[in-house]
Design a protein that fits this description.
Oligomer: single chain
Helix content: 25-40%
Largest sheet: 7 strands, mixed
CATH class of the largest domain: Alpha Beta
Number of domains: 3
Structural class: alpha/beta
Distance between the termini: 65 Å
CATH topology of the largest domain: FAD/NAD(P)-binding domain
Strand content: 15-25%
CATH architecture of the largest domain: 3-Layer(bba) Sandwich
Number of helices: 10
CATH superfamily of the largest domain: FAD/NAD(P)-binding domain
Radius of gyration: 24 Å
Length: 450
């Protein structure tokens, strides 16, 4: 049978674009559909604008620290509109790069919502196309809890980047990394921030020492965290949004007409027409095997819509592995062991490998040795600021293999990225010990822990 395309990609986010580009490099005829902005969540509503706002939020601390080095006090105020405009302009520049990239590799771009008519046919609104292979890369979307009265008054994490004015009082709902990051951003920019979580601690799923260190530091920096908040309701009042907490925590909070619903994300697979295919969906996500193949043998899926490891570099790697295998005659599959990740809170955190709890569950408590170092970095000594860095290694005693590395502190993502290479290669604690440290630096603590 003859098809319009060798490969058709639904979704032009990071994973979809990476796949389309590489398949086209190998000579495949490729089409891609995207109803929104090119670049997906990461470029438009996630990693990129968030990190730029993180940078903006750090300047007050830099101004304060500078006085310890002899600089006079800085008098500076934030122009919120200018910051948001600058961030938006950078996002626009990046989407333009994606457009040119796809054009250069002769990928046909359809600015439309792609839906399955059948297993080989995609409806693009005003036309239909067929493809021999189809890749679903539609990403995720914010999850809005339906058990909170008045939740319709809250913004999602996507909308924070388009606020015209800075909220002076700000409430974050949720203790995941997105909620924590935005709590720190707005706090650093000068808003009065309250974070409401249902658990006793933020960042469920991360190493417990890392969670404690970040939560303590956030509170010290001025973020008010209300934990174990099981029952709450939101109402619009003349003074703004009113949040009423009942149960273990009884309190009423007024926030400046803005409350961020940062309660996680879910696969964005509604209205794809998957019912017209044999693609299996379980717990709201597309089911795939180790080669990202769905139960429909010629249909594949990568990235957040599969709800495995929801990180941009993972989606890109999955997509490239797919293209290498099917169009480049270079069969390979994604390896999900020791995938590093970062949390851009203040303080920043990064992690790779197993948490202490995971290691003890897998190998037994007696089999695991923990190494920790907690110290004040040199940068903060002259300003006499009580800012701490935490580093931690999880080691399997019998083999001396480093199973996990965790850090909270400045440049954690930059440092742990290098450590991740060592873990990926199976480094032992003895290899860390035999490595000469760079002095004076925080990073050298990873090779001097005893």
């Amino acid at each position: 049978m003859s098809y319009d395309y060798d490969l058709f990609v639904i979704g032009a986010g990071s994973g979809g674009i990476a796949t389309a580009r590489r398949a086209a490099q190998y000579g495949a005829k490729v089409g891609i559909a995207e109803y929104s902005d090119l670049g997906g969540t990461c470029v438009n509503r996630g990693c990129v604008p968030k990190k730029l706002m993180v940078y903006a939020s750090h300047f007050p601390n830099h101004f304060e620290a500078a006085q310890g080095y002899g600089w006079s006090p800085a008098e500076s105020t934030l122009d919120w509109e200018k910051m948001i405009t600058s961030v938006t302009n950078e996002v626009t520049r990046l989407t333009g790069i994606y457009q040119r990239m796809l054009d250069n590799f002769k990928v046909d771009i359809f600015r439309a919502y792609g839906q399955f008519v059948d297993a080989h046919t995609i409806d693009l609104g005003n036309q239909k196309v067929t493809a021999e292979k189809i890749l679903i890369a539609v990403g995720g979307k914010p999850s809005t809890p339906n058990d909170i009265p008045g939740i319709e008054h809250a913004l999602t994490s996507d909308q924070i980047f388009h606020l015209k004015q800075q909220p002076k009082r700000f409430v974050v709902l949720g203790g995941g990394y997105i909620g924590c990051e935005f709590a720190c951003i707005l706090n650093g920019l000068g808003s009065e921030v309250t974070q409401i979580i249902r658990a006793d601690k933020i960042l469920r799923g991360f190493d417990d020492d890392l969670r404690t260190e970040i939560q303590t530091a956030m509170q010290k920096h001025g973020v008010r965290i209300l934990n174990n908040a099981q029952d709450l309701a939101i109402a619009k009042t003349a003074n703004g949004l009113q949040i009423t907490l009942t149960g273990e925590t009884n309190e009423t909070i007024i926030t400046d007409a803005i409350s961020l619903a940062a309660t996680g994300r879910i696969p964005n697979i509604e209205n794809l027409g998957l019912e017209n295919t044999q693609v299996e969906v379980k717990d709201g996500a597309i089911v795939v095997n180790e080669y990202n193949q769905t139960s429909e043998t010629h249909i594949y899926a990568v990235g957040d819509c599969t709800d495995r490891i929801n990180l941009t570099p993972v989606a890109i790697n999955e997509g490239r592995a797919f293209a290498d295998t099917h169009f480049g005659d270079k069969p390979r599959q994604m390896n999900y062991e020791n995938v590093p990740t970062a949390i851009f809170t203040t303080p920043e955190a990064a992690t790779v490998g197993l948490t202490e709890a995971e290691a003890k569950e897998q190998y037994g408590e007696e089999a695991i040795q923990i190494y920790r170092s907690r110290f004040r970095p040199m940068y903060y000594t002259l300003p006499n600021m009580e800012v701490k860095t935490l580093m931690k290694l999880v080691v399997h005693q019998a083999t001396d293999k480093v199973l996990g590395a965790h850090m909270v502190g400045d440049y954690a993502a930059e440092i742990v990225q290098g450590v991740a290479i060592a873990l990926k290669m199976g480094a032992r604690k003895a290899d860390f010990d035999a490595t000469v440290g760079i002095h004076p630096s925080s990073a050298e603590e990873f090779v001097t822990m005893r």
